[in-house]
C-alpha cells in the first residue's frame, strides 16, 4: 500500500517534467517570447498531451489547434505576460510563461552587416541587400530591388539600380572604384513580407573605410 501511494505522488511530477512548450516561430525556440500581430507556432511535446485541455491566459492571447501537438497563438498586448497551460479536471499539468513583445522595425543592410563604416572588401564579400530585425522571429522577407546613390567629395553623385537583392554588375564596378570617405546611400528598398504585400524599407548609408 505504501509503494502504491508513493507512485501516486510521483506520477504527476514525472508527467509535468516530460512536457515541453516551444515557440517554433523563433530562431531560438527556447526563448519564452510571443510576438504581437503574427501567428506564433507553438509546439507541445512529451507525455500524453491529447488528454489534456490547452488554454492561454493573458497577453490578449488566442490559442488555435492545427495538429495534435501544434497550435497557433495570436497575442495583442505588448509588454504583458501570457501563460500557456495544460490541465486536466481543473488541475494544471504543465504551464509556461511567455513575454509578449511587438515586432521591431525590419531593417535593411548589406549582408546582415551592422556597421555603418566598412571597407570595399567587406561590402563586396556578401554583395546583397538583406533584411532583419533585433528580435528572435524567423523573418520571411524578400528584397525585390533597390537604388544605390554614390556620394563623393569631388565627383558628381550617381544613382544605380538593382532589380533584385544582389548588387548589379554596374554597382559592383562602381563600388570597386570608390575611395575612403565616399558614401553609399541605399534607398527605395522594395521588399515583400509573409503577407505578400510590397513595402519600402528605411534607407541606410555605408561610408567607405
The tally of strands reads: 16
Low-confidence runs: 1-16
Roughly what fraction of the amino acids lie in strands? 35-45%
Termini separation comes to 78 Å
Count structural domains.
2
Gross morphology is elongated
Q: Mean pLDDT across all residues, rounded?
A: 89
Q: Tally the helices: what do you get? A: 3
Major sheet summary line: 6 strands, mixed
Using the CA coordinates, give the radius of gyration. Answer: 25 Å
Instruction: Tell me roughly what share of residues is in helical segments.
Output: 10-25%
Instruction: Determine the structural class based on helices, strands and strand pairing.
Output: mainly beta
Please trace the helix and strand order, writing H or E for each element. HEEEEEEEEEEHEEEHEEE
Summary?
This protein has helices at 2-18, 120-124, 169-176; strands spanning 20-23, 33-35, 40-45, 53-57, 62-65, 70-74, 81-88, 91-101, 107-110, 117-118, 129-132, 142-151, 158-162, 183-192, 198-201, 204-208. By secondary structure, the protein is mainly beta.
Amino acid at each position: 500500500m505504501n509503494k502504491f501511494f508513493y507512485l501516486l505522488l510521483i506520477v504527476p511530477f514525472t508527467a509535468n517534467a516530460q512536457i515541453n512548450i516551444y515557440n517554433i516561430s523563433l530562431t531560438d525556440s527556447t526563448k519564452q517570447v510571443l510576438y504581437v500581430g503574427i501567428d506564433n507556432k507553438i509546439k507541445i511535446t512529451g507525455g500524453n498531451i491529447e488528454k489534456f485541455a490547452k488554454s492561454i491566459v493573458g497577453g490578449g492571447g488566442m490559442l488555435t489547434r492545427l495538429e495534435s501537438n501544434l497550435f497557433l497563438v495570436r497575442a495583442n498586448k505588448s509588454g504583458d505576460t501570457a501563460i500557456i497551460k495544460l490541465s486536466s479536471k481543473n488541475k494544471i499539468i504543465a504551464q509556461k510563461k511567455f513575454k509578449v513583445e511587438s515586432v521591431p522595425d525590419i531593417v535593411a543592410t548589406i549582408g546582415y552587416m551592422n556597421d555603418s563604416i566598412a571597407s570595399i572588401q567587406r561590402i563586396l564579400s556578401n554583395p546583397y541587400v538583406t533584411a532583419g530585425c533585433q528580435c528572435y522571429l524567423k523573418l520571411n522577407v524578400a528584397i525585390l530591388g533597390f537604388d544605390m546613390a554614390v556620394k563623393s567629395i569631388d565627383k558628381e553623385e550617381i544613382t544605380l539600380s538593382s532589380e533584385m537583392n544582389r548588387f548589379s554588375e554596374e554597382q559592383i564596378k562602381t563600388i570597386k572604384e570608390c575611395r575612403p570617405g565616399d558614401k553609399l546611400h541605399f534607398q527605395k528598398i522594395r521588399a515583400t513580407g509573409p503577407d505578400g504585400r510590397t513595402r519600402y524599407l528605411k534607407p541606410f548609408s555605408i561610408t567607405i573605410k
